[in-house]
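Researcher: Go.
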Amino acid sequence: MVIRDRRLPGSSLRGLLVGFLLVATTSTALPAQAQVFTAFTQTQSTNNIGWGVNTTRGWTFTVSTPLVVEELAFWDSDLNGLAQPHPVGVWTNAGLLLTSATVPAGTTAPLDGTFRWVATPAVTLQPGTTYVIGAYWEAASPDTRLGGGASVAFDPRVTLLGGRGINTVGLAFPSLDVALELNANFKARPAPTIPALPRAALFTLAALLLGACLLALRRARQ
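Model: Structure:
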């Protein structure tokens, strides 16, 4: 007499059940990579000579949607390279440094627009929080300043609030309200979101997997 093994192979059944549960409990899909944009672009400049003191100068801002900062920059007034390296940082308004990088002297950093850019550890900025970006000059730096009198165009997702600065050695949180300087800039992309799958597609997938599970169970009992 032949005895049939009516048990469904465990790995097959487990695979079908796991697939059903994943579809039944998940209504999301990964989006395409969002496009990177620049916080602001310069349309006309007002050149000022460098500072006579060690200083970090920049600006404070908010964002209207979650943004992932991926690059920082320093303004290259003549588009022919920087005389000295310039550290650039992004802080919360409470002084917590979120990310930083140094734009090197010369033309090593790529020029995009009127700024030289370097990659930085990515950090996500959130609406409802005030942030500060600043760049550092040494006292003897001949690199010129992009003053607040310059004509610039900000991306609508970034709102400029005012100037910040602090006179001290090394890159430091610019905690004081000062005249606006725009040498520091950043590139960002919208933070990834997880859009919902259409309900019809979700239920169709769930029904197909459930049907496969039931059919497998029926065959196992025969």
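Model: The longest strand covers residues 115-125.
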